[in-house]
Amino acid sequence: MEKCSICKLPITADAVVSDGKVFHPECMKCCVCGDTIRGQYFFHQGEPICEMHHKIYADKCSVCGEVPSGRYYSIDEEVFCEECHLGQSEKCPRCKEVVLEKMVKYDTQHYRKQWIIFLKLDSSFRITGATFHSACFTCVVCKRNMAHSQFVADDKMQIFCPDDYNRYKTFI
Predict the structure, then answer these.
(1) pLDDT tens across 5-49, in order?
(2) Element (H, E) at 106
(3) Are residues 38 and 89 in the same domain?
(4) Which of 31, 38, 153, 171 has its CA 20 to 30 A from that of 122?
(5) DSSP states along 65-89
(6) What is residue 86's three-state secondary structure?
(7) What domain range is 146 assigned to?
(8) Are 104 and 112 in contact (CB under 8 A)?
(9) Which phi-psi region, left, alpha or beta, contains residue 114 (left: φ > 0; alpha: ψ -120 to 50)?
């Protein structure tokens, strides 16, 4: 028979199950104010917390200052709500998709850390003024991948192999 993670008494009726732990509904009390939590609940440092106190103690987005209401990211000990993170992330000039690197994604309801790596197959390729997905770092004419090869980038961050750039240059 399972036992309540808080009072350690056996669970014989209804229970709340969260993050692999089982609780009597009446044991789900906010770790700050002690009120019984009904409806939506959160965890702060492994303890149940009511929504009001969650908004006070939860990490706030480093950009907008709000408590993230959905998925959020922790990068170099800074917290970003998904909207702010994606809005400030570099975009690949070729595919216009965000070039994301290794980050931590948190489940905001249970504060469960999950490692997620957002990369297109391999890593990104940086040049002065832009970051490309490696798969996107190709000549705009012949489509040959230019990573680790000589290349020319024009003022619009279009990538050319030297031969195609010389042909292109004669037309402009």
Answers:
(1) 889 999 999 888 877 788 888 888 888 999 988 777 787 777 888
(2) strand 103-107
(3) no
(4) 153
(5) -PPPSS-EEEETTEEEEHHHHHHHS
(6) helix
(7) 138-171
(8) no
(9) beta
What pTM was estimated for this model as a whole? 0.46
Do 90 and 112 share a domain, yes or no?
A: yes
Q: Are residues 116 and 67 in the same domain?
A: yes
Q: Which two tokens stand for residue 35?
A: 């009120």
Q: Using alpha carbons, list the distances in angstroms from residue 163 to 1, 73, 167.
A: 74, 43, 7
List the chain residues with pLDDT less than 70.
100-123, 172
Measuring CA to CA, which residue among 118, 83, 88, 78 is closest to residue 100? 118
Q: Which of 63, 80, 170, 132 is nearest to 151 (CA)?
A: 132
d(CA 71, CA 83): 9
Closest CA to 27 of 49, 7, 54: 7
Token pair of 19 as six digits: 């993050």
